[in-house]
Structure formats: structure tokens, C-alpha cells
Amino acid sequence: MVGSGPNGLAAAVALAGEGVQVTVLEAADELGGGTRSAEAIVPGLLHDQCSATHPMAVGSSFLRGLGLGRYGLEWLLPEIDCAHPLDDGTAGVLHRSVAETAAGLGADGRRWSRLFAGPAADYDVLAEDILGPLLRIPRHPLRLARFGIPALLPASVLAKAFSGEPAKALFAGVAAHALHPLDRPLSSSIGLGILTAGHRHGWAVAAGGSRSITGALAALLRDLGGEVQTGVRVRSSADLPSSDVTIFDLAPAAVADILGDRLPNRIARAYRRFRYGPAAFKVDFAVEGGVPWTAEPARRAGTVHVGGSFAEIAATEREIHRGRMPERPFVLVGQQYLADPQRSVGDVHPVWSYAHVPNGYSGDATGAIIAQVERFAPGFRERIVGTAVRTPAGFAEYNPNYVGGNILTGAKNSPQLIFGPRTTLNPYDVGLPGHYICSAATPPGPGAHGMCGANAAARALKHLRGRARSR
Q1: Gene3D superfamilies recorded for this chain (predicted)?
Q2: Domain segments of the chain: what residues?
Q3: Under a CB-based contact definition with an 8 Å cutoff, are residues 187 and 178 in contact?
Q4: Using 50, 70 and 90 to split pLDDT, how confident is the model at 92?
């Protein structure tokens, strides 16, 4: 197993649980990929270094089936999942309850309920279809159709179902997690998936930081007889030990570089042509007294989306996709300490944020992020005790899967969202017997849910069983 992000460790655990001897090789000195956490700015103040809030992971059937609570993984929920403040002091407010969310959206409440109540109630069944390869015979075709038809639409079209700005903006902020223009086909899909999962299981954080997710997976792997080696960089096939199966939790181009001439030409070309979307510019803050949001629900929300109206967010996402930095970027703010107070030090709290910026952006977005938060929380600037910055280049150094700072491991355009790294019905196969890819470049995509790894492991197990039968 090459790479120890949540997908790599999920694949390793799935194989080890079936009696396969597994070794995980991790280039960094610390395992975890996008789920690492560390103290920063102020001693004792705990910040998630990338992935922070986990509506897809807390409901992951694979993770839930592992009993990771035995290894210290505890999910915690904020009072309010997400708030989207507007310039007039109001906010779109997302609760775990569909009914409670709808009640706060006025005339749009009925439309919100119509869109989410059924899929949220059916989410655990629906997830069997949406958290795997999309091009296959669905297990639950009627439920998938009910979810999938709206998901095919551009977010800008689906937003027209709402008449008020709070509902439109609330939907826009979640849809924008895809780092993709909101007027493109399928741009509703990731937002609908996150919202549906959240309405079923909540926007949870891991107690003690996101590192607790991979820490629990690694502990289980060791109990199953697996091994994790850090500080081991794989640059070519020569660096790989002899094995029956190799799975890569890596970006497609990295897999092509490692396998070199062993990879079929058409697959190597596809992996090297794989496209990457816009980037993240991250600023962690130490904030005395918390963020003084004007909209009171935002003070109780684990996540706050800062970007104004639907139209403003749609415009900024178009700009970054074209390689231009907007004056007012879309900013995601995490207040994980509200659910997990142990992350704070006294009245100084860790506030996590990142702005959407063009891929490879080399400027400094710190001031723009502060200004955007200040826009909806006057006095925020005066409460800042310290900052820690991670640029797009810093993200790529932190995790080479994040090419140009694209933390989603690939652009989520229609072809890559449907097929993954190449056009095939088996997106985890790399075209070389016994070799697979399981990074967030494969379906179902980004998140700490581990499903890319579990799906790749299922392909690997099928290969191993086939070899055993042929002997």
C-alpha cells in the first residue's frame, strides 16, 4: 500500500481483515494524508491541517463497520452544522434536521424538505450506490433516480427552485465545495451529496482532531497484523517490495511516474492528462473570544461559509476556474472547537479557514480572507492572536496529491466525476494485473470516508481470490 491517507489505510484494513499481509509505505514522517492535525500558533491549540469536518465520513458504512471507537475515534456534533451569513445580518442555517432547517428558510422551507427529506431518510441505503463507481447497475434504482436527477443539474439551475437568498446561498456554499463553476452540469452533485449525508448523520468532527480518524485506522491495521512504515518515498517500481497486490493512494500522474513503461500507454496518457482544479489558500487563526459574527447562528455553527449571495459565489468560482483571483474569494471557516472544546486554550480558540484561489496561485490571500470574515464579523481582526498560513504550494508540499494546491486530488468536471482518472467501468484498476489506485481521484471522490480505498480493496481481493483458485 503506497500512501497512508484515509483511503490508503481503509484499503489496507479491508485487506488485512481478510487475512492479507499488508505493509503501508508513507513518504511523510507522519501518516494521515489530508487528515493530519497539529498544534500551531499557540501551544496546546489544535488545528486540522486540511480535512476538518466530516459529514461523509461519520456516515461511511465502511468506517462504521470497523468499530473504530475501540481505538479512540469519537464523533462530535456542533449545535448548528453550517451557517451562511448574508450582508443584511441574516443567514441561511443548516441543521442536521431537515424540518428544523426548512423552518428557518421561510417560503423555501417546503422546497428544501421536498429536495432533502426523502434522500436523507434513505441515505444509508442510497450510499450503497453513490459511494462507489457510478457506471454500474444500481442496487436501488428508484432511490438513486430520485437523488440523481437533481444531481445532474448545474447548481445554478437547481438554485432556481428557491426564491429567497438564504436558501440559495446556503445551497451555493455547499455546492462550491466542488471547486467547480456552478453553471456546469453535475455541479449540484457534490453539494447534494454532502447535504444529504449531513441531514442523515450531521457535520461531525473527530474528537482530538482529524488525525484521530487515521490514528484509529492505523491502530486497527496493526492489530490485524499490518505494518506502517513512514519516511519511505516510492519513486519507481524498483522501490516497491515484492507483492501480490499494490494499491496506490496517489494522484494519477504519480502512479504513472512510478510504474513507468510497465503501464499501458493509453492509461499512462490518461493519467498524465488528468486535470486539477482550483486550489486552497489556508489560514489558521488563534482567536481570543471566538469570531464575533453578526448573524448569531454563525456563532454556534461548526462551519461557516463566507461568500455572500448565490450570484457572488457563482461569480468567484468562475473567476478562479479561469485563473483569476477575485477580490472577495469564497472562504470556508471551521469552528471545530465548538463541538470539541479540548482544541482551545482558555478563551483562545483555533479557527480554521481557507479561500478558493486559482490553481498554483502564488499571491498572498491572507488579507482577503481576513477582510471577508470581517465583512460578516466586525471586530474579528482585533481578536486575532496569531496566524499560520499554508499556500497552494505549501499544500502540494504537504501532500503531493494536491497538485497546484488542489486539495480534491483532481478537477470535479463531469468526466472525472463520473469515471475518475480514465474512462473505464473499473476506475480502481490501473491496467496492470494486481495494481490499483484508491486516491480521491477515484469515485466517490474527496472526503475521509475511506470508500475509495474500500472499493479498490474489493477489486484487489477479487484478483487475489482468482489467483488462489487458479493454483
Answers
A1: FAD/NAD(P)-binding domain
A2: 6-37+54-74+208-274+412-470, 75-205+277-398
A3: yes
A4: very high
Do 6-37+54-74+208-274+412-470 and 75-205+277-398 fold alike per CATH?
no
Helix (H, G, I), strand (E, B) or coil at 282: strand
Q: pLDDT (tens digit, 9 = 90+) per residue, 157-169?
A: 999 999 999 999 9
Share of the chain above pLDDT 90, in %: 91
Phi, psi of 52 (to 5 degrees): -135, -45
6-37+54-74+208-274+412-470 has which fold? FAD/NAD(P)-binding domain (3.50.50)
Query: Is-contact 174 189, C-beta < 8 A?
Result: no
Give the 3-state DSSP-derived string for 79-131, with helices as H, strands as E and coil as C.
Answer: CEEEEEECCCCCEEEECCCHHHHHHCCHHHHHHHHHHHHHHHHCHHHHHHHHC
Q: Which three cell numbers stand for residue 94?
A: 443548516
Task: Name the pTM for this structure.
Answer: 0.95
Q: How many CB atoms lie within 10 A of CB 370?
A: 18
Q: Give the span between the Cα atoms of 291 and 298, in whole angstroms.
A: 9
Q: Which residue, among 334, 296, 378, has the nearest Cα to 48 in the 3D structure?
A: 334
CATH number of 75-205+277-398: 3.90.660
